[in-house]
User: What shape does this take?
Amino acid sequence: MNLTDSALLNSYSLYALYSAMAVYALAFIAFAVDLARRSSAVDAIETDEAAELAGAAPAGAALNGTAASAGGTLTLKRPVLSRISARMDNDAALPYGRSSSLRVGVALTVLAWTLHLAAAIMRGFAADRVPWANMYEFAMTGTLLIMTVFLIVLLRADLRFLGTFVTGLVLVLLGVAALKFYVEVAPLPPALQSAWLVIHVFVASLATGMFALGFALSAVQLLQARRENIALDEQTAPQRSAQRSTVASALRFRFLATLPSAATLENLAYRISIIGFILWTFTLMAGSIWAEQAWGRYWGWDTKEVWTFIIWVIYAGYIHARATRGWRGSRSAWLAIIGFSAVMFNFGIVNVFFKGLHAYSGL
Assistant: This one.
């Protein structure tokens, strides 16, 4: 391909990427609107529940856990939030279960993913190789695979409530890549001219997509566990002050009452992280084989190699601790969050600021 055609394809790739970012932003808004509607629906249910329990009592008093009576105030035996939690745990459907904002969010995400894929393909054709030889291309294809994993998982489980997080993460990473990491098309360094480039980086990016989804589920799990603890506290200590109840209500995200339980979220995060761990293990092994072919040794304590191993150890510890040591709940969630933070550190810090044989940022 001549230089003119290559430059033209690269320009089209940039236009497609910026268009994808714009559509991702619209999808983010649509998913955020859905979360807002979830909160509004919970407010409506709380009002109905309070009216049912308190009769003619003022709505504010009922929501604070008390109801007016002829002799003064009557403490509710089962707080409103606990009743909503029980309703959601029984898979009761809320009015927005088939909300238009969710449908719009998913449709926009698919459209943005298509534009994103087109941008990566055109960049590959412009460079006449796979499009992951520098930080800009790593970010482009890595976020593409994160979104691909999310859309595929949606076919098996309804995780659309993660749409705000996933689209937001992809949008931020693409924005940083386009503004800070962009480089012109360049030929591959000699060490990267290998079929292992396709295998090693692709599998690593796919594992990152799994870890990102597990991270999102773990973060929501922590919030959900906190909400469930507050609800349990309300049920076991109904005599606490109205002021304490009001503060706790203000601190929790109401839409969480419409999401799966913390235990369900934890199980999903665990299963997805196991898949990511298997892929990351293959990444570590493939990288060692490639290193032997390129540099004549399987392991050399290069910074990138060390951090890849650190990530493997963190997730191995997470899986082992949860399976054999009974680490459940917030402890396992924090391990998953630490693991993904290490992945992001490896990508955004090690690749840019640490020098070594893996210094292929292109910057």
User: Anything to note?
Assistant: The chain has one domain: 3-353.
